[in-house]
Amino acid sequence: MFIRFVLVAVLLAFGASGAHAKPRHHQHVHAVHTHTIHTGLGPRPGRWCGWWMRQQLGGGPAYNLAWAWSRWGLPSSPQVGAVVVWPHHVGLITGETAKGKWLVTSGNDGGRVRERVRSLRGAVIRRGGAA
């Protein structure tokens, strides 16, 4: 119900009624909605893989930046549950394929949360524990 209220308010602010709204207004409303999702971690930033990881493992606002996760926990080898950090992306190792490839789940991967096989080349691997 709240989302419907916000949608109507935004459409009215742009002077559009539901019957005459142009697709670009709908797209704008969608963009506003996706960038104001709150979970107690603050609004979701445009680059949100670190923000998503905070939902999984905790951490302060500094961890919204992917590279900040390279200093989290302790160094590790690849294993299920480890955090994998590239210069501009962070994910969680969630499995290993029969061929020895690593499955990584991460936020903002193609604009959504998804799990897929990822190369760990050039990545920093961390696991939980005191730094």
Tell me about this structure.
- By secondary structure, the chain is of the alpha+beta class.
- The chain folds into 2 domains: 34 residues, no CATH class; 81 residues, Alpha-Beta Complex (endopeptidase fold (from Nostoc punctiforme)).
- It is 25% helix and 21% strand.
- It is built from 3 helices and 6 strands.
- It has a 6-stranded antiparallel β-sheet with strand order 1-6-2-3-4-5, with helices on one face.
- A hairpin with a 2-residue loop joins strand 2 and strand 3.
- The longest helix has 12 residues.
Helices and strands, with pairings:
Blueprint: H1 2-13, H2 23-34, H3 49-57, E1 74-75, E2 83-86, E3 89-96, E4 102-106, E5 114-118, E6 124-127
Antiparallel strand pairs: 1-6, 2-3, 2-6, 3-4, 4-5
Q: Which CATH first-tier class of the largest domain would you pick?
A: Alpha Beta
Backbone shape: globular
Q: What oligomeric state do these chains adopt?
A: single chain
Taking all Cα atoms into account, the compactness measure Rg is: 19 Å
Q: How many helical elements?
A: 3
**Tally of strands:** 6
- The helix/strand order is HHHEEEEEE
Going by CATH, the architecture of the largest domain would be: Alpha-Beta Complex
Tag the structure with descriptive keywords.
alpha+beta, 21% strand, 2 domains, endopeptidase fold (from Nostoc punctiforme), 3 helices, disordered N terminus, 6-stranded antiparallel beta sheet, 131 residues
In short:
This protein is α+β, with helices and mostly antiparallel strands. It is 25% helix and 21% strand.
